[in-house]
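User: Hi! I have a protein structure encoded as tokens and I'd like to know what sequence might fold into it. I'm fairly new to this, so please keep things simple.
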């Protein structure tokens, strides 16, 4: 879990990193990897929510939006890459906060 949180912190604190496309691409790759590991747990959590409930609908909508965002890529230019990495960091944080029971999985990732 500490590795995931460190990556999230880097993505959220981009002012402290050099904004090269290479460093942003590395960070994006790490965040997408963490998201990939956490998404199955998010889907499983949604399945446990009552069918037809607002909570289930919101959870599914959010996880689907995260999946779509992770597929977007960095886009053209440093600004686009910066925005993408920051969004992936927020998405990864959301997943991590809601799926703390994935500690063993996250430690291996």
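Assistant: Happy to help. Inverse folding works backwards from shape to sequence: for each of the 109 positions I chose a residue that suits the local structure. Here it is:
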């Amino acid at each position: 879990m500490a590795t995931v949180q460190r990556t999230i912190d880097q993505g959220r604190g981009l002012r402290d990193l050099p904004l090269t496309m290479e460093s942003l691409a590395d960070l994006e790759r790490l965040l997408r990897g963490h998201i990939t590991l956490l998404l199955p747990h998010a889907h499983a959590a949604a399945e446990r929510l009552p069918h037809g409930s607002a909570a289930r609908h919101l959870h599914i909508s959010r996880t689907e939006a995260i999946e779509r965002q992770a597929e977007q890529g960095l886009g053209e230019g440093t600004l686009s890459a910066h925005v993408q990495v920051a969004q992936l960091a927020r998405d990864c944080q959301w997943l991590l906060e809601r799926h703390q029971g994935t500690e063993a999985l996250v430690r291996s990732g």
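A useful reference point when you look it over: Confidence is low (pLDDT under 50) at residues 102-109. Feel free to ask if any position seems puzzling.
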